[in-house]
Design the sequence.
C-alpha cells in the first residue's frame, strides 16, 4: 500500500484493507505515496486518497498521472475517504475528478468511505475552516463496509487469472490521505 497521509484517517483505512487482503492470502504491502516510484512486480493496485472539497490530495492524483500506463495494465481499485457526519455513510457519489482518474486507469471499482475528523490534529487554518463549516468531530469510518469491500477485492483476485505463487498475487495498495 502506498500512503500519503495528512492526518492519518485514510492511512487507517488503507491499513485495514491491507490486513484484510493479507488475511486472504494475498501479499499486500503499504508504501508512502510521496516516496513511491514504481509498480514493477505488482499484480494489482488499491489506490486511495482523502477528499478535500471533492478532490483528491495532489500526491494521489500525481501518482495516477505519472503511472497511468503501468496502472492500466493491472487490476486497480480506488477508494476515497473524508465525508464526516451523521449518518456516517457518505451520501454523495464519487466526485467527478475521482471518476475521471478511475476511468483513466480502468479501475474495477471506486468507493467513498466516511472519514475521521479530530480538531486536535488540524492546523489553525483547517481547524478554523472546519468549525466555520460546523463539520462534526469524530471517527465516522465504517470498518465493516471497509472490510466487506476488501473481501470483495480479495475474492476477485483469488478467482482471477492473475499469476500467483504460494503467497498469492502481489498487491500494491495505495493511499494518499
Sequence:
Amino acid at each position: 500500500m502506498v500512503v500519503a497521509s495528512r492526518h492519518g484517517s485514510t492511512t487507517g483505512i488503507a491499513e485495514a484493507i491491507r490486513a484484510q487482503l493479507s488475511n486472504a492470502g494475498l501479499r499486500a504491502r503499504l508504501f508512502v505515496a510521496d516516496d513511491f516510484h514504481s509498480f514493477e512486480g505488482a499484480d494489482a493496485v488499491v489506490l486511495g486518497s482523502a477528499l478535500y472539497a471533492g478532490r483528491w490530495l495532489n500526491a494521489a492524483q500525481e501518482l495516477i498521472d505519472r503511472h497511468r500506463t503501468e496502472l492500466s495494465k493491472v487490476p486497480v481499485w480506488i477508494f476515497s475517504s473524508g465525508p464526516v457526519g451523521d449518518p456516517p455513510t457518505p451520501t454523495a457519489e464519487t466526485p467527478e475528478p475521482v471518476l475521471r482518474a478511475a476511468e483513466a486507469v480502468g479501475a474495477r471499482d471506486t468507493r467513498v468511505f466516511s472519514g475521521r475528523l479530530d480538531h486536535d490534529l488540524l492546523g489553525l487554518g483547517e481547524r478554523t475552516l472546519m468549525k466555520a463549516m460546523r463539520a462534526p468531530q469524530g471517527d465516522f469510518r465504517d470498518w465493516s463496509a471497509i472490510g466487506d469491500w476488501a473481501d470483495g477485492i480479495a475474492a476477485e483476485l483469488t478467482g482471477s487469472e492473475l499469476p500467483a505463487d504460494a503467497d498469492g498475487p502481489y498487491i500494491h495498495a495505495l493511499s494518499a490521505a
Strands lie at 2-4, 27-30, 44-52, 55-56, 76-81, 109-113, 116-117, 138-139, 170-176. DSSP finds five helices and nine strands in the chain.
